[in-house]
Amino acid sequence: MKYKRILLKLSGESLMGNKGFGIDQQRLMEYAAEIKNAYDAGCQVAIVIGGGNIFRGIQAEKGGMDRVHGDYMGMLATVINSMAIQSALEGLGVQTRLQSAIKMEQICEPFIRRKAVRHLEKGRVVIFGAGTGNPYFTTDSAAALRAIEIEANVILKGTRVDGIYTADPEKDPSATKYSSISYDECYNKGLEVMDLTAFTLCKENNLPIIVFDMNKKGNLQNLLNGEKVGTIVEA
To answer: Mutual orientation of helices 113-121 and 139-149 as an angle, nearest 10°?
Structure first.
């Protein structure tokens, strides 16, 4: 296996499937099955998921809501998604732990780095909810931060496209895909892989990012087996 410990970043929107809002149960179970395959192969898996399928703080700010208030609401949305992933995984027999950056003792542990690492070593999937616990930071930033803290080998960003392109492939049919690209090249070309805070954290800590299509069955396992899947961003 190419990577022993991974941080899988999923967008909240991906859980919507074909719905316009909320969680598509079929998509949720598809993701859980993919994660279980990685878990069964002996990979240590940590997960960060966004909350955009339920609530987005930035969009609320545009509607006149206080940004800080909106961001905290968005953090709570990520906990709902995290609980959904946790339930789906445990239904498949996968041991999990949910840690939150905001204390919610009745439903999850507080985030403690050493505890998270110990859970991974014991073969549990660790899900990090509530972002960083701070407003003005995205779940991309949370993913980068947690990946560095647990010393993950790589961030795997599961999206609906199969990598990084010269332009948006959904809008520009002539866009071509990169198999690999450097941090500097990504920045200079204005390619939006992650938000700038998250991207800078990864670059400064030499943490590779792989963008891949999470919706294609078997992609996660193929990636872990060392096959060229998606686009890798590294120094």
So the answer is: 70
